[in-house]
Amino acid sequence: MADAYRFADSMLVMGILNVTPDSFSDGGQFLDHDAAISHARELVGQGAQIIDVGGESTRPGAERIGVAEELRRILPVVRALARDGIRVSVDTMNAETAHATIDAGAEFINDVSGGLADPDMVAVAAGSGAPYILSHWRGHSVDMNSRAHYDDVVVDVRTELLGRLEALEAGGVERDRIILDPGLGFAKTADQNWEILARISELQSLGLPVLVGASRKRFIAALLPDGASMTERDLPTAVVSALLADAGLWGVRVHNVAATTVALAARRRLG
Ligand code: PMM
Questions:
Q1: Which long-range contacts (CB under 8 A, 24 or more apart) does 163-171 make?
Q2: Where are the domains of the chain?
Q3: CB within 6 Å of ligand 1 — which residues?
Q4: Average pLDDT for consecutive 10-residue bins of the chain (271 residues)?
Q5: Going by CA atoms, what residue is nearest to atom 1 of ligand 1?
Q6: Hey, which of 95, 125, 220, 245 would disulfide with 11, CB 3.0 to 4.6 Å?
Q7: pTM of whole model > 0.90?
């Protein structure tokens, strides 16, 4: 993998910046561009090495928005962060958005659909030269829960990721700029998410860096008492981050960067 995005000595922490009115855990908080930019700076101060900027919610049941609205939400934010020297990934399923934000200084394409949602994405990823985060995905959020049927979730996710990896390579995205992500919560039940985490080495055995996004998701919330707040999900998220660091993961994508940074610091002292 190219040195520019290898984080060899420790696990990378990617801070989430959802510039959306409706994301499940932080929707509406950072819709204002200035609020979004200052939150990103705060996350960097807390230890995030990359800020993942998204303008379209993928919460279960979410409706799609158009590219114009997505770009209106995120493009000025991406531009401002890149100008600050902050490494940005763009969380989008749209080729046009990926193209415009890479032009504006984003460094990574984070496509939760693994190139399946937009037929032009593979070509844009190929032409951009940018590292591409390839997630496991079976369909849009509006009905993804009905697609959570697997013989063996880890084997099936691995096989489907491998299929997309081959398609991306055939389309001109070199293997050494692909990062794999099991897409926790995307067409997966709570038990399936835990199974994937427990057997993450089976995905790592494909020989590519692996990123995981467990932060604040419902299967994490299920560890807490009923009625626990969204921010209470940050403690179990941080614990999972530390355990994944033990597994040699490339990175975690989290909302509360400070909590994960502290968990990783504790792990380092023990390691
Ligand atoms: N999850 C969400 C959005 N983007 N990107 C990657 N690479 N992996 C994920 O698991 C992932 C993602 C949904 O969560 P959010 O609404 O909190 O951003």
A1: 164/114, 164/115, 164/116, 164/134, 164/136, 165/134, 165/206, 165/208, 167/115, 167/122, 168/115, 168/122, 168/125, 168/126, 168/132, 168/134, 171/115, 171/122, 171/123, 171/125, 171/126
A2: 2-269
A3: 16, 18, 23-25, 54, 58-59, 91, 110, 112, 133, 135, 181, 183-184, 211, 213, 253
A4: 54 96 80 94 98 91 88 97 98 98 98 97 98 95 84 98 98 98 96 98 97 97 96 98 96 98 93 74
A5: 213
A6: 245
A7: yes
